[in-house]
Amino acid sequence: MYRQLVQAMVSNCEDVGHSFVEEARKIHYNEAPERPIRGNATEEECEALSEEGIAILRLHNIKEEDLN
C-alpha cells in the first residue's frame, strides 16, 4: 500500500528537484501558481519551511527491493 501511495503522489506532482524550497515559498506567498510539487530539501530547510507555516510531507527514499 505504501508503494501505491508514493506512486500516486509522485505521478501527480511536479518534480522541481533542488528548487523545492524556493518553489514551496513562492507558492505559499502567492508568487507562483498553486500546484502539487515534489523535490529535495535538507532537514534544516524542512524545519525552516515548517516554521514559516508551510506544510510539507517528507517521504524518505526507499529502494524498491526494500518494499514487500
Labels describing this entry:
single chain, 68 residues, alpha+beta, two-stranded parallel sheet, 3 helices, 2 strands, 41% helix, globular
Report what the structure shows:
By secondary structure, the chain is an alpha+beta fold. It has one domain (2-66). 41% of the residues lie in helices and 10% in strands. The chain has helices spanning 2-11, 20-28, 43-51; strands at 14-17, 37-39. It has a two-stranded parallel sheet with strand order 1-2. The longest helix has 10 residues, at 2-11. The protein is globular. The model has no long low-confidence stretch (mean pLDDT 89).
Sheet/helix structural class: alpha+beta
- What is the number of helices? 3
Shape: globular
N-to-C series of helices and strands: HEHEH
For the largest beta sheet, what order do the strands appear in spatially?
1-2
Mean pLDDT: 89
Query: Helix coverage percent of residues?
Result: 40-55%
From the alpha carbons, calculate the radius of gyration and give it in angstroms: 13 Å
* Count of distinct strands: 2
Beta-strand level of the residues, as a percent range? 5-15%
Distance N to C terminus: 9 Å
Number of domains: 1
Specify the biggest β-sheet: 2 strands, parallel
Ranges with pLDDT <50 over ≥5 residues? none
